[in-house]
Amino acid sequence: MAGELERHGYTVALPLSNTKDFDILAINRETYKQFAIQVKTTSYKQKTWTLNVKNENMIGDNIIYFFVALNELEMPEYHIVPSNIVANAVREDHRQWLNTLGRNGQKHNDNPIRKFSDLNDEFLNNWKCLK
């Protein structure tokens, strides 16, 4: 991921310690704009990633998610999404899930797990949100 950011014109810093809310700090070499990047990876082609309840409130103009689909032996796919879109999507998806019945007709119990999907590739290679 860091190499791909470097290739697109960003200087990358990786935290030496376990940082709670981001995995990579990237700085645009032309504009010097900084981004805190959260990376989520799946090894499946399903383009759905698991998040947490905290992602409903992690919003900022400079917070970007990179959802990576590793796709086995093919090139990885990068779904690049601003944090406000992720927060709204996971909040709404979870609300809908709570309001639907489970397999056996029972009500779903609330939990901290959230899901984000980009099944239609709306955010595939969305590098423009890093400008």
Low-confidence stretches: none
What is the string of SSEs from the N terminus onward?
A: HEEEEEEHE
Task: Please report which band the strand proportion falls in: under 5%, 5-15%, 15-25%, 25-35%, 35-45% or over 45%.
Answer: 25-35%
The N- to C-terminal Cα distance equals 17 Å
Could you give the order of strands across the largest sheet? 1-2-3-5-6
The helix content is 10-25%
Oligomer category = single chain
Mean pLDDT: 92
| Overall radius of gyration | 16 Å
Describe this structure in words.
The protein is built from two helices and seven strands; from the N terminus they run αββββββαβ. The chain has helices at residues 2-7, 83-98, and strands spanning 10-13, 24-28, 34-42, 48-52, 63-69, 77-82, 113-117. The strands form two sheets. The chain has a five-stranded mixed beta sheet. A hairpin with a 5-residue loop joins β2 and β3. The two termini are 17 Å apart.
